[in-house]
Specification:
Structural class of chain C: mainly alpha
Shape of chain A: globular
Distance between the termini of chain A: 45 Å
Largest interface: A-B, 40 and 40 residues
Number of helices of chain A: 3
Strand order of the largest sheet of chain A: 1-2-5-4-3
Largest sheet of chain C: none
Number of strands of chain C: 0
Distance between the termini of chain C: 31 Å
Order of helices and strands of chain C: HHHHHHHHHHHHHH
Structural class of chain A: alpha/beta
Strand content of chain C: under 5%
Oligomer: heterotrimer
Chains: A alpha/beta (153), B alpha+beta (373), C mainly alpha (355)
Shape of chain C: globular
Largest sheet of chain A: 5 strands, mixed
Number of strands of chain A: 7
Helix content of chain C: 55-70%
Chain lengths: 153, 373, 355
């Protein structure tokens, strides 16, 4: 399916989605955190879309907002899409986990939790994956400060 | 076994062992926390990060030329292909057309890298299932590839041959001859791999029907590369999203539907044949021309998001760059194939025996720096 | 004691001439013990060197080649290094059992060595239950492995030790039954008589033809398993368990385990030679007039079988633990039982091939 067909189809499911194609090679959908899990499961299960391959899950810090970027591909229809979710809550950012939809998300969400401190509801084993368990702070956040280990140019 | 009576002397009890970070089968510093009942694995909990170097954080500081050098240190067995991924994302973002010569050379060296990586994997695979001799056979042939690399780019492993816009240097005059010599040599040696290990009854019994991954699980766990293709998930980036010179060569995507350890093994053997075929098609047709296009000394990517995927020896490596127009990326994410492949380990290995776990891990072809980044 | 010929007989006579009988007996036994200990150490070192050289040639390498001619003294240098090393061990190990374990292993293999006939003359201890004694003593070694693995306070060692117990108990059966097949043919358990029977009627592998060849193949498989070598090296499966039961041993204690493994291999090969290839007999009796050459023929045949075992080791992958048991209980054991019956029929009907 082409990007515009996808946009038409997906916008019919939920009116509160934002679509964008600028500054990216994929169709970008921005979804509110409360609709994330519902949209994700529909993207995977709907016969028209069938996004069964989550090939990249990226944690993001947009300066004010924290969020996640999901890169999805359908192995049947070969189309690709990007789903973004954001929250302005920097103290206790929480999203729904999608690891029941795409199993690979379990590890990637642990990584995001480790680096950005984003928590996931219904995640089976949320722990620090790379950093030591007693590490203070979340290193990939833009406001992270570490005088010892970071060299600022 | 029923454990109804309280002081049953034969009550079976699960226990816990640490596999790694220093363990011969984890090939680096992977640590698996295993829950075991006798010899049967009940749970696997990977503990990563023993060589986490925060490459993604360093990328946010460095210029794009510098980032290329960091990628060598992720999957050091596919160093050239990792370099290529970053170069491609920069070139695509800038709309830079690299000379045909560069594309062909990149492809040839990428395929040589893939063969070298699979040779090392094959040696280690044999060692993990207990046949120590394979290691030396694999290394004998890999040495020739390393020598070719050394002559052309001065390094044997972390090659740094790619730069955004082209290549660091032109090919060494001996390159074509030595590559042809290698292909001729390896065509006689690859059947030897089959006679030494593939055909061995013990090896087949050890690997067939072990660690089965279904196609649905392979996709859902995001596995790529030979691991996914053994399960029937056609995911070869070289076929589906061709880059460099892959659009002009004929090769078959190694694919099967069985999904067990033996099939994953076969996929890589088959890939070595396909890689040789690709090199043979290109080695005589390297176009003349420049080996790089001029770029600005300071590369600034336009504002936006860029994604590039390439096929490393382990699977699909994705580079996701978010640029805000400065000379360094705002955010750079490496989607490493090993990380996603490792997430499927629990699915494959729970319920099998300790010896199976080692064989399964061997066919996942784990490179820990690639996972930890 | 059976010392019929020149050298040993002369020493025996001389000892009894110069001192009283009880002292002479003690001195004689001490002498024999010293000779065997020296042989034990030398054979161990030589076999380690041989294994490393052979492995190297299988693996496109050169192997040790710097210390001494063809690297022959390399293993001596290694042994010296191991002697000089500190004996470390886990703090929470069961110290008594932990220290005892290497001696169990090494004493068991040394005892088994004592009944081996190197030639008609060099045969220290020719008891009428020779073969039985060999099997009985060589299976004591597993107690040492179990103790070592259990007392090390290391789960990898423990898994290795448990695998060892299960492996040895299983394969002991096959070793015993395949030896029994030959005992049916020989009609005796005494080693000198077994060899004498082969002197008259040809080596048992030819005399017993089909059942003997089957027994030999089973014996080699089970014997390799008994010595815990690849493809049956699950006990120390490097890629699974680190070093298995001896993970926590260092220095000389480790060397004892290591040495015992090679001596056990020697013993298994020697039993194979005694039972199937005529012990110290020369092929077609070509050097029967020079009895001393028996040592040469015996060692040649033993080294031949050892080479075979090394060949296995450096070619085959390792079995999995359940496959190990399947092989023994579902294949080797039934074949073996059938083979004994076959051999009994062959012997009863006089179908043996006699020269």
């Amino acid at each position: 399916m082409t990007n515009s067909e996808l946009q038409n189809l997906i916008s019919s499911w939920n009116s509160e989605l934002e679509f964008s194609e600028s500054e990216s090679q994929f169709l970008n959908i921005t979804v509110k955190p409360e609709y994330l899990h519902q949209l994700a499961s529909q993207l995977k299960s709907d016969k028209e879309t069938l996004f069964d391959f989550l090939f990249c899950l990226t944690g993001m810090d947009w300066g004010t907002d924290l969020g996640i970027v999901y890169h999805l591909e359908s192995t049947t229809h070969k189309h690709q899409i990007v789903v973004k979710v954001k929250t302005a809550d920097r103290e206790n950012p929480t999203f729904d986990s999608v690891c029941d939809i795409w199993f690979t998300a379990e590890f990637h969400e642990m990584e995001v939790f480790d680096f950005f401190g984003i928590k996931f509801n219904n995640h089976p084993n949320l722990k620090r994956l790379f950093m030591p368990a007693d590490w203070v702070g979340f290193p990939l956040r833009k406001d992270y400060v570490d005088d010892v280990n970071m060299i600022i140019k | 076994m029923t454990t109804t009576t309280e002081n049953n002397a034969f009550k079976s009890q699960e226990y816990f062992i640490n596999m790694g970070p220093q363990h011969p089968a984890t090939h680096g510093v992977l640590r698996l926390l295993l829950t075991i009942d006798g010899e049967i694995i009940k749970n696997i909990d990977p503990d990563l990060g023993y060589i986490h170097r925060s490459i993604e954080k360093m990328c946010e500081r460095d210029s794009y030329q510098q980032i290329v050098h960091l990628t060598d240190r992720m999957d050091y067995l596919s160093a050239h292909i990792n370099n290529e991924a970053v170069c491609l994302v920069v070139e695509n973002a800038l709309g830079l057309e690299v000379p045909e010569r560069v594309k062909v050379i990149r492809t040839i060296i990428a395929e040589l890298t893939r063969i070298a990586s699979h040779q090392l994997w094959w040696g280690v695979m044999g060692m993990d299932v207990g046949a120590l001799t394979t290691y030396f056979y694999g290394f004998r042939d890999r040495e020739m590839i390393n020598d070719i690399f050394e002559e052309t780019c001065g390094a044997r492993l972390t090659m740094n041959y790619n730069i955004p816009g082209g290549l660091m240097f032109d090919l060494h005059p001996n390159f074509i001859k030595r590559t042809k010599d290698f292909i001729a040599h390896f065509k006689t040696k690859l059947p030897e791999y089959d006679t030494l290990l593939t055909g061995n009854v013990i090896f087949q019994k050890r690997t067939q029907g072990v660690g089965i991954l279904t196609r649905e699980d392979a996709i859902s766990f995001g596995t790529t590369g030979p691991v996914a293709r053994a399960s029937g998930f056609s995911c070869d980036v070289r076929k589906h999203h061709p880059y460099s010179a892959y659009d002009r060569v004929q090769f078959n995507e190694a694919i099967s539907t069985v999904g067990d350890t033996f099939t994953r093994y076969q996929m890589r053997i088959q890939e070595m044949w396909e890689s040789m075929a690709i090199i043979e098609q290109l080695i005589d047709n390297i176009p003349d021309g420049d080996y790089k296009t001029a770029t600005n000394a300071v590369i600034k990517l336009p504002k936006g998001e860029f994604y590039q995927k390439v096929e490393t020896a382990r699977g699909e490596l994705g580079v996701f760059v978010v640029s805000d127009g400065k000379k360094n990326p705002y955010r750079l994410k490496f989607r490493s194939p090993g990380f996603s492949n490792l997430s499927a380990l629990k699915k494959m290995a729970v319920g099998s025996k300790l010896g199976d776990l080692v064989a399964i891990m061997a066919t996942l072809d784990i490179v820990v720096p690639d996972i930890d980044r | 004691m059976n010392i019929p010929l020149s050298i040993t007989k002369n020493i025996h006579n001389w000892l009894f001439e110069v001192m009283s009988a009880p002292i002479a007996t003690v001195v004689q036994n001490v002498l024999i013990a010293v000779v065997f200990l020296a042989f034990f150490a030398l054979a161990g070192l030589l076999l380690v060197w041989m294994e490393r050289r052979i492995a190297a040639f299988f693996q496109l390498r050169l192997g040790p080649n710097r210390v001494g001619p063809m690297g022959l003294f390399q293993t001596i240098a290694d042994a010296l290094k191991l002697v000089s090393k500190e004996l470390t061990g886990p703090e929470k190990a069961d110290k008594f059992l932990y220290n005892l374990a290497p001696y169990f292993v090494i004493v068991a293999s040394l005892m088994a060595l004592s009944v081996l006939p190197f030639s008609q003359e060099f045969h220290a201890f020719d008891i009428n239950i020779g073969v039985f004694f060999l099997i009985a003593v060589s299976s004591i070694g597993v107690i040492g492995i179990l103790l070592g693995g259990w007392s090390s306070n290391n789960k990898y060692s423990l898994i290795g030790a448990m695998r060892s117990g299960l492996q040895t108990i299983s394969y002991e059966l096959s070793v015993g039954l395949s030896i029994l097949t030959i005992v049916v043919l020989a009609g005796s358990l005494q080693i000198s008589e077994i060899i004498a029977a082969q002197q008259e009627g040809g080596w048992f592998i030819i005399q017993g033809h089909i059942p003997a060849i089957i027994a030999f193949m089973i014996f080699m498989i089970a014997g390799t398993a008994e010595t815990n070598r690849a493809p049956f090296d699950l006990i120390e499966a490097e890629s699974e368990l680190g070093a298995g039961f001896h993970t926590e041993y260092s220095g000389m204690k480790f060397a004892y385990f290591f040495l015992a493994e090679f001596i056990n291999m020697f013993i298994i090969a020697a039993i194979g030679v005694i039972l199937f290839f005529g012990g110290w007999l020369s092929p077609f009796g070509i050097t029967e007039s020079i009895p001393l050459l028996g040592v040469f023929w015996f060692m040649l045949k033993v080294l031949g079988l050892i080479f075979l075992m090394m060949w296995f080791r450096w070619t085959f992958p390792r079995l999995r633990v359940d496959q190990l048991l399947t092989l023994e209980w579902k294949y080797l054991l039934p074949i073996n039982l059938f083979n004994i019956v076959l051999m009994a029929i062959v012997v009863l009907l006089g179908l043996t091939i006699n020269f």
